[in-house]
Structures are given as C-alpha cells and as structure tokens.
Amino acid sequence: MKTRKAFRLPALRRNIFSPLLVLMGFFVLAFAHAQNRDISYLSSGGKLNPLQAIMDIRHYTIALNVDIDKQRIDGSTEISLLLSKSTDTLLFDLVHLLEVQKIKVNNKPVQFFQANDKIYITSDKAFTPGNQIVKIEYGGVPPVAVRPPWLGGFTWTKDRTGNPWVVINCQKEGGRVYFPCKDHPSDEPNEGVDMLITVPENLVVAGPGILQKVTKTKDKKTYHWKTNYTISNYCIVFDIGKYTVVGKEYTTCLGNKVPIEFYVLEEDIANADKIIELKERDTRILEKYFGEYPWVKEKIGIGEVPNPGMEHQTMITFQNKFVYSQVGGHEYSANLYHEYAHEWWANKVTNKDWAHMWIQEGIATYAEALAFYELGGQAAYDEIIDGHKRSIKSKKPMVGGEELSEDETYAGNDIYTKGSFFMHSLRYVLGDSIFLPTLKKLATDPKYTYDNFVTTTDVEQLFSAESKQNLKPFFDFYTRTTEVLDISVKETGFQKYLVKVNNFFMPLPFDISTSNGTTRTVINKEGVIVASATPPMVDGKGYYLKKILIQ
C-alpha cells in the first residue's frame, strides 16, 4: 500500500506545500532505493502465485540499450501470454532496482505499480482469457553479481587488454534481475525469445539461438538474437565482450549439421581450436548416452566469461583459463563438460519445480562419470564415482517437499554428487541393458522434453515401467530421506552368517563375497544365510550408500 501512495505523489500539487512534499517523497524513495541493492534474498521458484498460475508465457522480446560506463540498462520487454481465465491483475517479477516507466497491454496504456520486486498491472475492466501482449518500458542500474554464477546479477569488468566485459548470471535469482518475467521453472516461453541488445560498436553480444542481424547506428550496434525453442528464463541472458567467433560445422549422430561457435576474447583466440576440438569429442560422448544434441536447428555455442560457467542454452559459458586435467591420457575440462551436459539435463529435460533439481544437476554430474569411462575406462569411472560418494553430506533430502525455491533445494552439493551416485546405484540394481536405454529414453522421449517438464515421480515411473518393477521405495529412500542402508552381518553357526538389511524397504541385489567367491544375491526382509570360512563382504565395490555392522 505504501508503494501505491508513492506513485500518487504528483497529485499532491493541489496543496501549497506539495512541491516540497513531492521533492522530499522522491528523495526518501531514492535514498531507500540506493540503500537496498542487496538481492541475496531473491530465489527463483517456490509456490506459484495464483495470479501467475493463470498465465502461460508464449514469447519474450527484450530490447535493451546497455550503457557500460553508467552500468545501466534501458529499454523494454514485450511479453506474449495466454490467460486461462479473467483477471483484474497481471503479475510479473522484476527486481526493485529497475524502474518501470510505462506499460501497455494490447497496445493500450494501463495502470500499474511496483512493490516487493513485482509489477502489478491493474484494470477496472478484467483482462479476458486468451492472448495478451504486454509491453513494459523500464530502466535503471541492475544488481551486480556478488559471487557469480552462484550469487547472480551483472558482472561489469574488463579483459586483460582493458576492453569492457559484461556477463549476466541469474539461476538463483531468476531472469527478473534484468527483465520482467514470470519467474517460475514450470513455465517457459513456448515460442522462444527475441533479444535486441545495443552496445558500443567495438563490442560483440553473444546470446541464445541464432544471430539474426547486426544493425549499426552512429557509434553503436544492435545485435538481434532469436531462439525458437522453449528456454528457462535464467538462460535468457547475454554476454558482451571484445569477442571473435571461431567455428566449425558438426554432424550429429543423426546426420544433422549444426555449427559450433565459440565466442572467445580476441586476446585468447590462440586457445580456441582446442576448445572446438574438445567440444566435438564431448558431443560424441553425450550423444552416445543421451541422444542427439538437442538444439540442432540453432547452434552449439560457447561464450568465454570471467566466472565459472553456466548452462545457458545454446550458449553455455566457460572459464577455466584454458587449463585442463588428464583422464586416461586425454585432456578434459570439468567446467566445459558439465555445463555442456546441461544442454540435455536442465535445458532439454527440465524440472517442473526446483524441488526436483537433482534431476538436472545429478544426472549432469553422472554424465561426467560416463565421460570418465569413455576416456579412461572402468578405473576412471570408479574413481570419480567414489569421489562423488565421499562428498555426500546427507544434511537434507535431495527432494525436501514440493513447490520449493532454488535456495531451499540448492544448499549443499548433494543434488550433484548424491544425485550422481543415485544413478550409479540404480544402474547396478537394473543392469546396463535396462538402465542405459531408459536413461536415454528420459532424454529423448517428447513426454519428458522441451515443452514438457519432469518431477522425481515422472523419473521413477519411467524406470519402474521399463524395468517392470516398483522402484518407488528405492527412489524415495535415495531422494526423500538422508538414510543409508543399515546392514548387519551376524555369525549364526559354524561358517554360517546372516546378512540382513535392518532398515529394509524392498528386496535389493548385493554382491556378497565369501571364501567361495562373489555372487549377486537378492536380500529380502528376512535376510539371507551365507556359508563362508571367513566373514562375508557385502557390496565390496560400493554400489550403495551403507553402513555395515559385523557381529
């Protein structure tokens, strides 16, 4: 309500003291605005506001002038949406640091006010069901990233030769850090995004999709990027730098041709060919396990940035100072590979709710283990999986409820490493002949990709159907609890041992090693008796999270 009054301050001119009051009012607002640049409280997702639940976002057109000297943006965002029912209020998200000047709905001016990082568009007459075109003009100094990409916003810096270098990260906070949007993972613009970004003429803009054209006006250039695919709003970002584009055509596993384009700083162009080479190789590995590169109608893009990379769709960002590790005698960049795996797991297969973020982070992390296998064999795979297991903290379940914000789910690394290890355990339970084709089906079936979204239940039901067994208890145990298998080995007679899972929830196979060798044995609720001259070893290769008590 205070914000509504603030927007009415000019009406006070009827009073003899109104000019002073207006000046004081705007001074107070400006002071409060300047003092409140902290956006650490912002977190994408959470409970979907009913006013936004009735909106289906179809398309964004973002047209902005970037003033690098003032670290300011000005322009407009046009939002095409479908309303499912009548409403007297349209609700969008936009950080309070950016001020809205004008809004039109279907080309007609409307009333609005800003409060709590939101824009409320109101009408005495209801907005009717069907298509609505909302154009919002705004500007200001956007938030500065504190620790990108984890704590996001704009990064305004310079490359080594002093050229401006500007990047955006906003997975935690959402696209609202710089454009009005519906900030929820369950809704993506089905008809894509157009971005028209104006910068000084000596700089280049890297963005999602395909570069349509570059228009020069005086001492500036406007880069028009367009994607026709659905895209998460935190991937609707751009990077600005003294870039050169190094490219090569790639032929996918299905025979389609798609360009690889590396937006590399001019000063680093000598390193570009190595990145392109790694990109080709990594694509082959990812396509083997997860199907064709998802965005063949656009590009395989990489943008060099000054912070650790992100999975920005068709323009993943990358920074490792061109230093590589060795896997099986091959050069490897975890930063480059992991973010690229997200083109399948996050961008193509997208969680409906941040509560299920382990799907995209955990499987993308498991994709690294598959790369290690391809590059270094079983020993390399075993080593990285062991590292994932050792890093699991189990402070909170991977799935802590429903309708959670990014902050509520993200804390800790378990959605990465426990998610990966869960895939490793599931693979053991099902065997490669079921696990690997089902994982590929999850990444390729239209039911789970592009316009559609997934939850943990969707993933479980797919694996249950393909394996013809009820895997819900297994999924619940790994994703919704912090428990580990409690296994006891008890001597019950001469060279006889009872092996039992004390927190039993379903029959599971185990490798049990005895003096007679190793056998794969299913342990039911009562446990199993094994014969051995020595105490048996259970799950010696570590396919499960467990603790073992030998009695």
General description of the model:
It is a single chain. With 551 residues, this protein is of the alpha+beta class. The strands form 8 sheets. It has an 8-stranded mixed beta sheet. It has a 4-stranded antiparallel beta sheet with strand order 9-10-15-12, with no helix packed on it. Helix 4 (272-290) crosses helix 5, helix 8 (414-430) crosses helix 9 and helix 9 packs across helix 10 (456-467). The longest helix has 33 residues, at 358-390. The termini are far apart.
Features:
four-stranded antiparallel sheet; 551 residues; Neutral Protease, domain 2; eight-stranded mixed sheet; Immunoglobulin-like
Q: How many whole angstroms does the radius of gyration measure?
A: 27 Å
**What are the low-pLDDT stretches, counting only 5+ consecutive residues below 50?**
1-35
CATH C-level label of the largest domain: Mainly Beta
Number of strands: 30
Strand order of the largest sheet: 5-4-8-2-1-11-14-13
**Strand share of the residues?**
25-35%
Reconstruct the topology from this structure.
Layout (H helix, E strand, L loop, with lengths): L1 H6 L10 H18 L14 H4 L1 E13 L4 E12 L3 E7 L4 E8 L2 E2 L1 E5 L2 E10 L2 E11 L12 E6 L5 E6 L23 E8 L3 E3 L3 E8 L2 E8 L11 E3 L1 E9 L5 E9 L6 H19 L9 E5 L11 E3 L6 E3 L2 E3 L1 H8 L8 E2 L6 H33 L15 H5 L3 H17 L1 H13 L8 E2 L1 H12 L4 H9 L4 E9 L2 E6 L6 E7 L2 E7 L4 E4 L5 E2 L7 E5 L1
Parallel strand pairs: 1-11, 17-18, 18-19, 22-23, 24-30
Antiparallel strand pairs: 1-2, 2-8, 3-7, 4-5, 4-8, 6-7, 9-10, 10-15, 11-14, 12-15, 13-14, 16-17, 20-21, 24-25, 25-28, 26-27, 26-29
